[in-house]
Design brief:
By secondary structure, the chain is α/β, with parallel strands linked by helices. It has one domain: Rossmann fold. 33% of the residues lie in helices and 26% in strands. The chain has five helices and eight strands, in the order E-E-H-E-E-E-H-E-H-E-H-E-H. Strands 3-7-6-4-8 form a five-stranded mixed beta barrel.
Length: 184
């Protein structure tokens, strides 16, 4: 069994099952840990919305994460062999690092984070640490919801249509990655 994990139910709308809604931010690690204390998946696909830290990434761009940076933590590299196989399954994805932060990043913060990462989120580092600590292989894929100069905290209704389209893209990406984690 390959588990699909996301912070929000919206992110899981089109994702393969089984699914786990972890919640936003660091608290998601505890929810995932509790679930893993009762289940042992063969692997996990961590999916979710992200903010762009580079102007070249527009809304709907897919980011295949090869490393995770977060203030106060050592960078978290992902399994290179899995990334190479995932690139073949997601040829349109941009491959690079994501930065995990404690709160939504405004445009200035996203631009600052762009020195080290392609995108910003609030969960990847926490969830990756949980899976890595248990020896469970995982992949991380993000879809850009808010572009570099957009502030996701402004005009929340504006994001609804974009979120559904992004969730569809996440579901397609997760479905393409499941066979890789199953070893097919």
């Amino acid at each position: 069994m390959i588990l699909t994990v996301a912070a929000l139910g919206t992110e899981l709308l089109f994702a393969p099952r089984p699914q786990l809604r972890a919640g936003v931010g660091a608290g998601g690690r505890g929810r995932v840990g509790a679930w893993l204390s009762e289940h042992r998946p063969a692997g996990a696909v961590i999916i979710g919305f992200s903010g762009a830290t580079h102007a070249s990434l527009g809304a709907g761009s897919l980011v295949l994460v090869e490393g995770i940076v977060s203030d106060g933590r050592d960078p978290i590299p992902l399994d290179r062999a899995l990334i190479v196989r995932a690139q073949r399954a997601l040829p349109g994805a941009t491959v690079g690092a994501v930065a995990t932060v404690a709160q939504p990043a405004d445009p200035a913060e996203k631009a600052r984070l762009g020195l080290d990462a392609l995108a910003v989120d609030m969960e990847s580092a926490h969830l990756a640490e949980e899976f890595a600590g248990r020896g469970i292989p995982f992949l991380v894929v993000r879809v850009i919801l808010d572009e570099l100069w957009e502030d996701v905290s402004q005009f929340p209704v504006r994001w609804t249509g974009r979120a559904v389209a992004a969730a569809r893209k996440l579901g397609q990406a997760a479905s393409a990655l499941v066979p890789i984690l199953e070893g097919r």
